[in-house]
């Protein structure tokens, strides 16, 4: 009989799905790495499990311990599923811009959720970076994950996502495109693919209000680039250690409005019910269309599921209030 011994064994081996209607302007074959098929409905399940297994192996996470992390929701879900199976408690720190659905889902799987203001500097004691770090110091028998600087994050994608994409495209992939937040996905997948074929181009999708694009192009960390933005899960006001800029060929920035509109369009034109960063990635692909030729095979990774954005990008009242639709 074929069955998984627990839910964690269903992580990975997600399908590649062709994008049709929305990719008409793009000369290449455009395929999406459809990560919502993971049990926690996002690509973050991969690195959540890897980070936990590595922390168990070297003794940072001890039996009965508490896992503490700052998350925009998806990493928390992956960590929570692994924690349930392995017997840990979880405390997750989110910023108040994250959707209510994400907070509710984390509570539904037994995690304690702490909400912090978005509109503060990373060093501010109220920021979600600072609060998660402080909780990690104060909570007995706890382990602070720190997905931004935890090398197991990128390693998970080097060991699983990259090889899957290579095998599924029979090594024909020419471009990999993905939204960049912690940097684990782009760096891990990009490293694997470039070791297989150094000519593969790796493109990051960034958002306005984030430092990545300018830093990649100039080497300057420009604080004037930083301001609040609506798009969830991509962009940063810090430089995570997981972002390996040497692997990335370029960035394109997508507006909050375009990301939201294309999140809806993916559902309505492709039947792909996906999260906000997928809308950003789809619009970013269209912005990059001159980079591709008819012989290219472009793989774009879609991170998470539309159910987490029902009150926002899939709510026309919210979209009108934001000025994104008439």
UniProtKB/TrEMBL annotation:
The keyword Glycosyltransferase does not apply. Its cofactor is pyridoxal 5'-phosphate. The keyword Isomerase does not apply. Keywords: Pyridoxal phosphate. CDD domains: CBS_like. This is Pyridoxal-phosphate dependent enzyme. One of its GO terms (biological process) is serine family amino acid metabolic process. Belongs to the cysteine synthase/cystathionine beta-synthase family.
């Amino acid at each position: 009989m074929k069955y998984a011994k627990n839910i964690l064994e269903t992580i990975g081996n997600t399908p590649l799905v062709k994008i049709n209607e929305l990719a008409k302007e793009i000369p290449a074959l455009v395929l999406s790495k459809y990560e919502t098929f993971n049990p926690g409905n996002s690509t973050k399940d991969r690195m959540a499990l890897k980070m936990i297994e590595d922390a168990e192996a070297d003794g940072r996470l001890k039996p009965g311990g508490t896992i503490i992390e700052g998350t925009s929701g998806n990493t928390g879900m992956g960590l929570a599923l692994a924690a349930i199976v392995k017997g840990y408690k979880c405390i997750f720190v989110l910023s108040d811009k994250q959707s209510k659905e994400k907070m509710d889902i984390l509570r539904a799987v037994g995690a304690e959720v702490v909400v912090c203001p978005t509109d503060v500097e990373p060093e501010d004691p109220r920021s979600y970076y600072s609060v998660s770090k402080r909780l990690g110091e104060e909570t007995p028998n706890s382990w602070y994950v720190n997905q931004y600087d935890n090398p197991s994050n990128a390693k998970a994608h080097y060991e699983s996502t990259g090889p899957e994409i290579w095998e599924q495209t029979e090594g024909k992939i020419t471009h990999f495109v993905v939204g960049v937040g912690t940097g684990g996905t782009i760096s891990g997948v990009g490293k694997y693919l470039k070791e297989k074929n150094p000519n593969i181009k790796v493109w990051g999708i960034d958002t306005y209000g984030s430092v990545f694009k300018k830093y990649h192009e100039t080497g300057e960390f420009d604080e004037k680039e930083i301001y609040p933005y609506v798009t969830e899960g991509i962009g940063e006001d810090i430089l995570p250690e997981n972002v390996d800029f040497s692997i990335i060929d370029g960035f394109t920035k997508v507006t909050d409005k375009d990301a939201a509109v294309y999140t809806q369009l993916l559902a309505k034109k492709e039947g792909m019910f996906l999260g906000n960063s997928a809308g950003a990635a789809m619009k970013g692909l269209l912005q990059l269309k001159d980079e591709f030729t008819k012989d290219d095979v472009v793989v774009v990774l879609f991170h998470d599921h539309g159910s987490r954005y029902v009150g926002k990008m899939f709510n026309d009242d919210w979209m009108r209030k934001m000025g994104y639709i008439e």
